[in-house]
Amino acid sequence: MTEAIKIFIPNETSANSVGANLLHQIINKINNDESIKIIRNGSWGAFWLEPFIEIEKDGVRQGVSYRNIDLSHLNTIEEFFLDFESRNPFDINDIDFIKKQNRIVFSRIGNEDPLNIEYYKNTNGYQSLSTAFEIGPQKTINLIKESGLTGRGGAAFPTGIKMQTVFDQDSSLKYLACNADEGDGGTFSDRLIMESDPFALIEGMTIAAYAVGASKGYIYLRSEYPLAKDYLLKAINIASDNHYLGNNIQGSDFNFEIELRIGAGSYVCGEETAMMESIEGRRGLVRSKPPIPAITGLFKKPTLINNVVTLATIPPLLLKDQSNFSKIGSNKSVGTMPFQLSGNIKNGGLIETKFDITLNEIVEDFGSGTQSGEPIHAIQIGGPLGIYLSSTMLNTSLTIESLQELKGSVGHGGIIVFDNSVNMAEQAKFAMEFCVKESCGKCTPCRIGSVRGVEIIERLQKHKTSKEDAILLHDLCETLESTSLCAMGGMTPNPIRSIIKFFPNELIEK
Amino acid sequence: MTLLKEKNYGTPKVTSDNTVTGYIDGIEISVPEGTSIMRAASMVGIDIPSLCASDNLDAFGSCRLCIVDFEGRKGFGYPSSCTSPLNNGMKVITKNNHLESLRKDLLEMYISDHPLDCNTCSSDGDCDLQNQADNHDLLKNNHLLPSKYTFDDSCNHLGADVDSSNPYFNFDTEKCIVCSRCVRACNEVQGTFALSLESRGFESKIKPGISENFFDSECVSCGACVQACPTGSLIEKSVVEKGMPNETVLTTCAYCGVGCSFKAEVKNNDVVRMVPYKDGKANKGHSCIKGRFAWGYAKHQDRIMKPMIRDKITDDWKEVEWEEAIQFTAKRFKDVQSQYGINSIGGITSARTTNEEAYIVQKLIRTAFGNNNVDTCARVCHSPTGYGLKQTFGASAGTQHFESVQSADVIVVIGANPTVGHPVFASQMKKRIRQGAKLIVIDPRKTDIVESPHIKADFHLPILPGSNVPLINAFSHVAVVENLIDHDYIKNRCEEAAFNDWVEFIKDNSNSPEAAEKPTGVKADIIRKAARLYALGDKSAIYYGLGVTEHSQGSTMVMGMANLAMATGNVGFIGAGVNPLRGQNNVQGSCDMGSFPHELPGYRPIEDDIARSVFEKKWNVEIQKEPGLRSVNMFDAAVGGKFKGIYVQGEDFVQSEPNTQHIEAAFQAMECVVIQDLFLTETANFAHVFFPATSFLEKDGTFTNAERRINRVRPVMKPLTGKHEWEITQELAKAMGYEMNFKSSEEILEEIAELTPTFTGVSFKKLDELGSVQWPCNESAPLGTPIMHVDEFVRGKGQFMITDYVPTTEVANRKFPLLLTTGRNLVQYNVGTQTRRTHNNLWANEDVLEIHPADASARGIDSNSLVLLRSRKGETTLKAIVTEKIPAGVVYTTFHNPETGANVVTTENSDWATNCPEYKVTAVEIEPANHRSKWQEKRKIDRNQLEQIINT
Fold first, then answer.
1. Residue A459 with chain B: CB contacts under 8 Å
2. Are the Cβ atoms of A455 and B102 closer than 8 angstroms?
3. Residue B677 three-state SS
């Protein structure tokens, strides 16, 4: 007996933005055959292919990119199959973009319906939770410490040490907060986990909460991710129904529940203390540290705060053959990093690899160069507060240490490519404008300084050679970096200084 | 001449068992662990620049001026010294070239969005931004130098609106530096949470509400934000009008029993503004709308400046000189005495004047009058406290200081509305509750303290008026029956026999929560839970007010609370106690000064021969051995034709006594009524002599607040009337044949100290040294006594008293089916004599009746309509508001306005032990009305006529 035919149509924000939902509507309508299953899977993270429709037949699975293809003329499902075959379908695991990656954390995205918990369990899902229950909280924390995992949100703090601090606090009530505010433009690694492998995040949160003694978890999700919200709510329900959340998880005496909290359009609420203020129902203002959240966090209780990817890394880390992850890289740059490639690029998407990879490999080998075909002029790494590298710096390694030397940062892993039509002075101004828009307003340098920064750069745009304005910009950057309350103001000078240094005469002319 | 400016340490004081030692610019300092670097630096005389730090507010870290460096610092950013604790061994550098240039840059940023001309700013000379700019070479010729960050088309907030809706202060956005000190002050100090910020980043704007201005918002006008504002953004209108003051006089507020210490900031002997004094032990730098802003009555046009006399009360007033007025009075009093007997005249000391002024009136009566017919307004408010606590503890005053509430675990508020009656203390209490203390509120009304931002009472028991005693007995019943009492405490500190009798009594089912259900209207289950919460608290404190005392069983209830506190071991240490919230600024003082018919100064009984002889010797007279008449008795005797003359210092009986018709009849029957007051009060209508009194701004003496704290009142200006009040009394005594020759109020205090054991250590000098002192203050307690009954009760062992419930005779019936209870609002003070002559009227200029929707709809009454309020005693009309803040069957109003004259409906019922009137229970009926009652119409006409006469 032949197996059922499966048609995979991704349900994911990027794919939907180029018509995946519409395609699904059409194909679903024309399908009258009950034995043909249409599955909304996640995205493989190869965005240039989206909407990437796959068909699995007789044990063979292949896919075709249906970008800019109109199928509204189709009348029957057979017509669709013919159309599909005519477009040279291929196995996505065979293409370099996927093949050359090291998908450990993102191993499941694209494979299946993200809410298929059986699939999750069949691919090592929830094994690590059992391990954690077996070895106990402190040993779990030890494993994470030994693994060398550092935070993937942007600050790269050693995860195990943070967990140990929370564990050591003497409090009957502790919290876990997952920072899903992913505000950097051109980043989507958190989103891909939440939309395409939500159980990975839930299991990661459960293990982390168990390890530190937290009984309540919050996911602080940005409001701009409605599909992620949908998947998370459903996944949380399914997990609860299957006793992976709630009271007495899997028969243990560990209770843990997760509540979703939605943001309201503030980048600075991705800063951990502003995020806590927001969860507590207050204005998203940054809090001073000390005290650190691990000691005095949400509602004044010890709180473990971690990024989505960091938490989703915990289950693969604890798998009995976890040596994969820690064997990669060294120092702070251990394990894999999910770089997110976008901008003026042919092949954009999620690239999970070791840190020690050059910018050239990412942009040329994976990305295939600019979309426009024009030469690359600049690449911004690490989000809106990250530095711009010039086309002469393509052999830069993307380790945390290497970027730190350039006064930059890997951050959350966003890589945005610009061709030679970019105006670097405008980009410098954008750095200040971004700060103006997103500043919480609490501290003087960020609140007022950013406004003045825009004004100074506008003047420089009119008179590149103005020495006074160049000095003013220098002073302003100095004050922002040295006196700001948080990294919003503190790191705004980084992109600007990189433009002055690596793109001479484009902003300031000597 | 300089303004007194208190030191700002930057961040609040911290207590800790551990000490840390660090170095600030090389100077070693040891501080409690958790102290900020800024505060530690301040303690060694290094004032790190700052704009957003204030030592009454938690550190915020907004301005970034206070950044410091320290050895071993990592990273690019400097930490703010206000938010960073000093760690052991830390070596801090507060000033170097880099830090200074960064600070200057930050100031340039502030200045780029700020008006530049300090000369035209009302805050010139009192502005932190101006000072910091000056310190960093950014001020020249009193102008801020244009910022390097200002360009032709720079964004800024110049020219923004000014919110002048509040009558007392302005909010000018243009000068705001978004330091959020105002928001934090409203949150952390006042606890009202009225202010917030709108928007974010450069668009951040301080807002008193979503769309309201200050006046329409939840702001209670306490002035904390104005005080906190470091620039001229929030500023008193009086400073804008009169200019910056240049001299400080430290004095005490004359409104309520909190007794806030104030800096009267003065220019040319005129008060420009009243600013709370940070070192004031009662208020710690906070205030409320009344003390802070409502002092304008002292110079109101209604103020009478010259003595007036008239032969009959139907005659017009005649202005005369002091000599004539005093002689006229003395002669008339003497004539009355010779005709009707020595006991036919008496006097009342004011709870609003100083201790010295009250003492001298009491002395006048016992010497020149020759009798003991002296009383004070405590009669009608806290006299049951006097009786009840004296019986049980041996001393009739509050047991704790206000600070004590910061250590309480369980707080019970019974029959008090602290957020309006003692606002500054309520803020302190709310702070403790936000930290986690539990709260039980016993009040028919859902007062503010029951639920407000970040405050929710664990239990609100809305008992029906008149059911206090069964409620408190039920609490004690639960404590005894469930064995939640403190056996050790009782054994060591209380009389055994009395306790045993009490246990037999209290455990009877007639005192159970089940039995209390019917009279109180509250479920037994809730009563039980609340009782357990109080009894099980480590430190449980009771705070109570007139909702306890102004009842026919007021004294019983006080004793009931004392019983409960003793049984659960909650008297004699910090965080606990039985605390009467004394109302008037000096009611405690006037009681202390022997203003009672049966007691000499220091609460010694008149029948005590030894005590009496001390006074007789000093005063050189024979003092009558028998107690005299209480005020209530004086009025009865007047109606009966036996009491004919009265010297009333600062009290408006006709408005504040219950059963107005009776009081009016009493005054009408007298032949020599002497009123000493600031304005023509309702009682003055019945007076033959009017002595103009002085406001607190003219007085030189002492007030004693609810904590027994004696505070100095210092004059800002000489008496506008030409005479101190004590001088009037002294001259009257002399004219009546008794020689009194005090040369100053200081001398009067010296005599008080000489004759009163609890006051021996008190003097102007000591008060100047210590600021204030809580009595007893004598050899055994030279610095005063914060908490009483510490090792043992004043009477030795505490005495349990049997507290049978005897329901009041004033019950709801078919004719009068609703129960009226009365209270106060925030902006008016008592009968409104002072506050009705200030801008506080803008918030509430009439008394309003609160009625439950069920009762309103049954009577066809809509919110904001006129209603007739009727009791068996009288009637009046006023506006009604329909609200669920009170239970069905209960109505409520205030008594601030003589146009309403709420007391025309209250009755002659009073406390069995002290005659304190039962203001809190009156059977009434409410009906819709379409015109004022007859007496209100008549009063309006009379008043208009009177005002015409006065103003021509």
1. 151
2. no
3. strand
CA-closest candidate to residue B582, choices B282, B189, B251:
B282
A68: Cβ–Cβ under 8 A, 6 or more apart, which residues? Answer: A18
The tokens describing B905, both together, are 């409906």
CB of B128 within 8 Å of a chain A CB? The answer is no
pLDDT > 50? residue A53: yes
Q: B226: which 2 tokens?
A: 């104005």
What b/e sequence results for B27-66 when a residue is b if at least 16 CB atoms lie within 10 Å of its CB, and e otherwise?
eebebbeebbbbbbbbbeebebbbbbbbbbbebbbbbbbb
CA proximity to A316, closest of A147, A116, A164: A147
Report d(CA A129, CA A206) in Å as an integer: 8
Report the DSSP beta bridge partners of residue B877. Answer: B868
Say if residues B382 and B578 touch (Cβ distance below 8 Å): no
CA distance B61 to B159: 28
Spatial distance between the Cα atoms of B111 and B116, rounded to a whole number of angstroms? 7
Which residue of B58, B109, B113, B129 to mutate against A (max A Cβ within 10 Å)?
B109
The SS3 of residue B909 is coil
From the list A288, A448, A481, which residue is nearest B202 (CB)? A448
Chain B from 34 to 73: CB within 8 A of any A CB: 59-64, 67
pLDDT in tens, B234-247: 999 999 999 999 99
Q: How many CA atoms lie within 13 A of B369 on its CB side?
A: 29
pLDDT (tens digit per residue) in B296-337: 999 999 999 999 999 999 999 999 999 999 999 999 999 999
A428 shares contact with chain B (CB less than 8 Å) = no
Burial grade of A1 (CB within 10 A; 0-12, 13-18, 19 or more): exposed
A485 and B CB contact within 8 Å: yes
- In sequence order, the β-bridge partners of residue A41 are none
Q: Could you tell me the domains of chain A?
A: 5-99 (3.40.30), 117-326 (3.40.50.11540), 328-419 (3.10.20.600), 424-502 (1.20.1440.230)
pTM attached to this predicted model: 0.94
Taking CA B931 as the corner, what is the angle to CA B926 and CA B933, rounded to the nearest 5 degrees?
70
User: Pick from B67, B85, B196: which is nearest to A483 by CB?
Assistant: B67
Predicted local confidence at residue B950, as pLDDT: 59
pLDDT score of A326 = 86
* First-to-last C-alpha distance (Å) of chain B: 40
**Are the Cβ atoms of B76 and A451 closer than 8 angstroms?**
no
CA distance linking residue A454 with residue B286, whole number of Å = 42
CB-based contact (8 Å) between A481 and chain B? yes
Chain A: closest CA distance from residue B76 (Å)? 6
Q: Is B4 on the interface with A (CB under 8 A)?
A: no
DSSP conformation letters of B394-408: S--S-SS-GGGGGG-
Partner-chain residue, chosen from A288, A436, A472, that has the shortest CB–CB distance to B201:
A436
Q: Which of A268, A441, A481 has its CB closest to that of B178? A: A441
Q: What is the 3-state secondary structure (H, E, C) of B406-442?
A: HHCCEEEEECCCHHHHCHHHHHHHHHHHHCCCEEEEE
Q: Does B78 touch chain A (CB under 8 A)?
A: yes
A443 touching B (Cβ < 8 Å): yes
The pLDDT tens digits for A347-405 are: 999 999 999 999 999 999 999 999 999 999 999 999 999 999 999 999 999 999 999 99
- Supply the DSSP string of B712-746, one letter for each residue: EE--SS--TTSS-HHHHHHHHHHHTT------SHH
Residue A227 near residue A221 (C-beta atoms within 8 A): no
Helix (H, G, I), strand (E, B) or coil at A8: strand
Q: CA triplet A253, A255, A257: central angle to 5 degrees?
A: 165
Alpha-carbon distance of A123 to A135, in angstroms, equals 22
